[in-house]
What we know:
The chain is of the alpha+beta class. The protein has three domains: 65 residues; 88 residues; 110 residues, no CATH class. Keywords: Signal.
Amino acid sequence: MKTWTGILLMIILAVATISTTSSARTMNESQKQLNIDDQSSQTSAVVASNIETMNEAAFTTKESIPVKGEYVSVAPENENVRLYPMKVEGSGYIYNGMVLEVNGKKREFSKWQGEGGSYKPEVHELDLNGDGKKEIVVLFTAGHGTGIYLGEAHIINPDTLEEMKMQSLDEIVKQHVNSNVSVAPGQVTINVTVDGVHAEPSLMEEDTSEGVYNEELKFGGVVYYSVENGKLVVSASGAYGMGLYDGDLNFAYDYKDGEWQAVDLEYSTEEYEDEYYESFD
């Protein structure tokens, strides 16, 4: 009897062991499946994150595309010197701020505002004063209209990209030019002296009854800057009345006493035809 009881107990223990092992295997398999599902979810999240990152990178790249080539001015002396607008307005005809690149270095000049199109800015790399060191010269048109042309020039140190000091047109006229406008009925007489040298007096016969005249020549309404023979030269017209011009003050810039100053000044007169004014339209 005891023998059969022992055998029965052994059978019951064996069945219990098999059941426990089966349950453990089921739990392990479930846990493994859970881990696989978790990894799959994490993988999907990583892939989705990568896709979003790629899309964001593509968007950033798209936003950082350089300005159109038609707006870029390249120095004829060095293709690594470039000038282009920070922002283009008015169908590409207004540059609101400009960026200057010099041999890999870049600087923004937000206060520079000029015209594009046929008045596209110029940039040059020149040794303006023959000292063996080159400067960057930027020329652009700040505005124009009938009887008005507002040229603008800047000289930049290529190493620091800092603007170098330049004598203003007002300072130059005050220092070098003396003039007088004398108005009589039907006649205007203009006398000009530049650095003590008297120019040929101008005598105009015109209806003066309704004209608005200056007591002396005013400069600044028509100013051209250009590069000629490696020099920055200026031509500024002298106005004896509203929209009335007599001649041009011509000079070049040279570096003296820590700034760019006017040299080789002369005043020349010429007859301004109607086409002259129309050229500003």
